[in-house]
Structure to design on (824 residues):
């Protein structure tokens, strides 16, 4: 149905497949190891994925359902029966360090979302135990940020614009934390015998995987209990009434909150549509709750529920009455209860709540007191071994034997191997294999795009910056081969050789999600990450090298960043260097590939890449006139003003903006860093994408109106130029850093640990 | 690979979802799906259930 291979009927089956495959040792791998170490004992290592799955089931049997990191630690322990205790402990600590709670919610972070979900579905399908998935979506976090900003401003007697937005966001985060912790506490209180794995899957999305609870009535009770407690807590925080950021005129959408859908994982009939089904259920829950907050009910929903209860024998039809009478009575009672509930909730609003009358201080007092009352959620965790717990692994901190162009993963592995050498611990082949597997995961992967998480990219950029001077120092510019490579790259002297950073902003990921569903949109997202961006980089001349620090990170939505090494050696042994020209080639190649994607048949693409597509789906695509990706509709109507003209419209299809820059900051300078650098490049890419949307709509406007007015054109170009200024503003960070560096006295070269390029390239 | 753990979904709901295909549901479809789930006694958004809990005597927060 979805995905490729044998786990295709499993939710996030691709993640399960990759997880299981990582533990298998096929005949070729065995032969290779035995050739080097004939005495190696490999008999206990699994030869196929089913063997690993059987071992996972054995772990569930003995330990219950575990987090992915705990599961991986248990598998490695099983596969290394004779390894040194120090190796066991090290690997276990590395694995459990990945369970470090996410800072806002205290849940596991997104890197675990897909594998945990896939394993939970396997647990439901392959054991006789129940597994329940609870999908949660917060409401109106943007409007809540505004509310806190305004409240803070009113209390301080200043304008909202004078309040640091991060302060308001911090208060919204506390409200998120309270509801998140409350949900786990509620579940563990109601079902103390069950295990909960809670994950923050997105900015405003959570997923809880709970063992047990397989009775529909129990699930319905849990749904109502969780929703009711969320409502109580929201009201007690005084966050029930402020306007919605995007729909301020709709009172049903006022306030902060969260809604959820409870799903029996044995009852998933289509993994390709489950997430959008849950999203729809949550949307409807928000609608129902929003009505109830103002004392209204959806009479048809109440009637359907009453009818269902009669059919299931939970509601009796008394003698001399009809089912319609029973339903009418249920509706009448529901209306009264909704009004009573609304009144009760209102009593908890600031005007009636003593504690909340203190404003922000009252909110904080309530949050602090309530958090202490919740049952703690703490999945097994451990600190990362000290030898690996380092941000800087480049420049002076680069491990011995690691080259300036080597990947982050390789740097971590080198640190771990050095550690065991120093400890005098011999690592047999299997121990080495699993140690490397575990340590590599220290740089986590975004599961939707299957590329690096942003945190790893920040670290890579900082290390690449620190290594740049060392890389240049290794180059012998008099070598004719080096000169030829420099000529080919259009680089005149060594100071122009530098790592390059790119930001790639892709338009219409929301349209892909809406038109094709999350599962299929993920497949397109991975294609964009690996074949469009990765493929473009390779096509432009950057060779595929296992040790390279070339990396792509996904920043959510359609936002990616890329780090290109300053250079390297290709498979033919030829040197190559990154340059301004290379960035131009990559950008051009990315645009060509996006153009190809827009021309690709959607159904054929999904079929080829393991998406959810069958005859029904093909028919659905035909019904919506969705032939190629150029037909993907922009869900948002956009408005641009050009002088007296206001142009509204949708920018359909997939579009991309690419901004590149030589990596040119000094990590030793105050306020500089990979995060700020990539942030500045991404700001420029986002601004460029917005400018591109405006240009597309303007082009369409001219075409549709046959508008040749010079006045409109002038206004358009004026607006276009104004947006160009925004793009330039995004680069101020780098300009400022360059100025700061230039201001350093020449007599203090140690302040700057590498020579910046003379002409930072920008495409 | 899925074993025998899977349960069947009421055919009316399965048919409803299969006709929608891979795309996101509209607000009207989300409401219709919720009505179907309520009708079959599956966990769904129930204003009645939440209101019952909120309007009751237990208002501890």
């Amino acid at each position: 149905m979805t995905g490729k291979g044998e786990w295709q009927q499993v939710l996030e089956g691709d993640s399960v497949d990759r997880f299981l495959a990582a533990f298998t040792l096929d005949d070729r791998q065995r032969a290779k190891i035995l050739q080097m170490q004939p005495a190696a004992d490999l008999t206990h290592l699994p030869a196929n994925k089913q063997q690993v799955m059987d071992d996972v089931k054995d772990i569930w049997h003995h330990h219950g359902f575990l987090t992915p990191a705990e599961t991986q630690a248990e598998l490695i322990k099983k596969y290394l029966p004779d390894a040194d205790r120090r190796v066991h402990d090290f690997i276990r600590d590395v694995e459990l360090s990945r369970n470090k709670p996410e800072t806002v919610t205290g849940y596991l972070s997104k890197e675990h979302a897909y594998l945990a979900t896939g394993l939970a579905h396997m647990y439901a399908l392959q054991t006789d135990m129940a597994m329940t998935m609870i999908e949660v979506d917060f409401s109106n976090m943007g409007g809540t940020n505004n509310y806190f900003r305004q409240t803070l401003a009113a209390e301080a007697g200043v304008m909202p614009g004078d309040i640091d937005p991060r302060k308001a966001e911090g208060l919204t985060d506390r409200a998120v934390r309270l509801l998140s912790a409350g949900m786990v506490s509620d579940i563990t209180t109601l079902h103390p015998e069950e295990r909960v794995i809670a994950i923050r899957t997105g900015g405003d999305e959570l997923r809880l995987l709970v063992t047990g609870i397989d009775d529909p009535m129990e699930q319905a009770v849990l749904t109502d209990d969780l929703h009711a407690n969320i409502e109580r807590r929201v009201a007690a925080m005084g966050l029930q009434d402020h306007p919605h950021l995007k729909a301020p005129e709709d009172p049903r959408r006022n306030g902060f909150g969260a809604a959820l859908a409870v799903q029996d994982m044995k009852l998933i009939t289509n993994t390709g549509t489950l997430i959008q089904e849950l999203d729809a259920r949550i949307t409807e829950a928000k609608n129902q709750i929003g009505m109830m907050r103002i004392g209204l009910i959806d009479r048809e929903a109440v009637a359907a529920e009453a009818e269902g209860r009669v059919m299931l024998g939970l509601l009796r039809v008394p003698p001399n009455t009809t089912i319609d009478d029973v339903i009418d009575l249920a509706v009448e009672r529901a209306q009264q209860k909704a009004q009573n509930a609304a009144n009760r909730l209102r009593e908890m609003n600031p005007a009636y709540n003593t504690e909340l009358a203190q404003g922000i201080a009252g909110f904080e007092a309530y949050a602090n007191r309530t958090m202490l009352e919740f049952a703690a959620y703490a999945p097994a965790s451990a600190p990362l071994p000290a030898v690996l717990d380092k941000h800087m692994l480049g420049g002076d901190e680069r491990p011995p034997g690691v080259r300036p162009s080597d990947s982050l993963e390789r740097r971590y592995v080198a640190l771990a191997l050095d550690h065991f050498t120093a400890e005098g611990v011999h690592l047999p082949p299997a121990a080495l294999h699993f140690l490397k597997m575990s340590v590599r995961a220290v740089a986590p992967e975004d599961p939707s795009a299957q590329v690096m998480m942003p945190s790893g990219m920040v670290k890579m950029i900082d290390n690449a910056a620190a290594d740049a001077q060392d890389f240049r120092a290794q180059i012998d510019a008099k070598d004719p081969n080096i000169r030829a490579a420099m000529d080919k790259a259009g680089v005149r002297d060594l100071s122009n050789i530098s790592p390059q950073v790119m930001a790639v902003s892709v338009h219409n990921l929301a349209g892909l999600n809406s038109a094709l569903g999350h599962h299929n949109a993920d497949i397109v997202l991975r294609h964009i990450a690996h074949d469009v961006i990765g493929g473009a980089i390779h096509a432009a001349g950057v060779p595929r090298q296992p040790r390279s620090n070339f990396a792509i990170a996904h920043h959510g939505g359609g936002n990616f960043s890329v780090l290109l090494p300053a250079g390297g050696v290709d498979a033919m042994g030829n040197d190559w260097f990154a340059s301004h020209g290379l960035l131009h080639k990559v950008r051009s190649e990315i645009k060509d590939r996006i153009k190809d994607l827009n021309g690709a048949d959607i159904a054929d693409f999904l079929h080829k890449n393991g998406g959810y597509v069958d005859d029904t789906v093909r028919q659905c695509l035909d019904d919506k006139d969705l032939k190629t990706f150029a037909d993907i509709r922009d869900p948002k109507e956009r408005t641009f003003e050009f002088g007296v003209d206001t142009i509204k419209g949708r920018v359909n299809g997939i579009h991309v903006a690419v901004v590149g820059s030589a990596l040119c900051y000094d990590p030793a300078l105050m306020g500089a860093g990979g995060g700020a650098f990539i942030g500045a490049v991404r700001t420029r890419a986002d601004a460029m994408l917005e400018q591109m949307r405006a240009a597309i709509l303007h082009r369409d406007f001219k075409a549709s109106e046959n508008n040749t007015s010079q006045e409109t054109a002038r206004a358009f170009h004026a607006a276009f130029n104004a947006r160009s200024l925004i793009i330039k503003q995004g680069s101020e960070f780098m300009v400022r850093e360059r100025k700061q560096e230039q201001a350093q006295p020449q007599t203090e070269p140690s302040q700057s640990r590498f020579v910046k390029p003379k002409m930072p390239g920008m495409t | 690979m899925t074993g025998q753990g899977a349960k069947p979904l009421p055919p009316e709901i399965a048919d409803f979802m299969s006709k929608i295909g891979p795309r996101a549901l509209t607000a009207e479809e989300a409401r219709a799906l919720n009505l179907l789930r309520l009708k079959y006694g599956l966990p769904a958004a129930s204003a009645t259930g939440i209101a019952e809990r909120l309007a009751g005597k237990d208002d501890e927060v």
Remarks:
- The longest strand of chain A covers residues 131-139.
- Chain A touches chain B through 88 residues (CB under 8 Å).
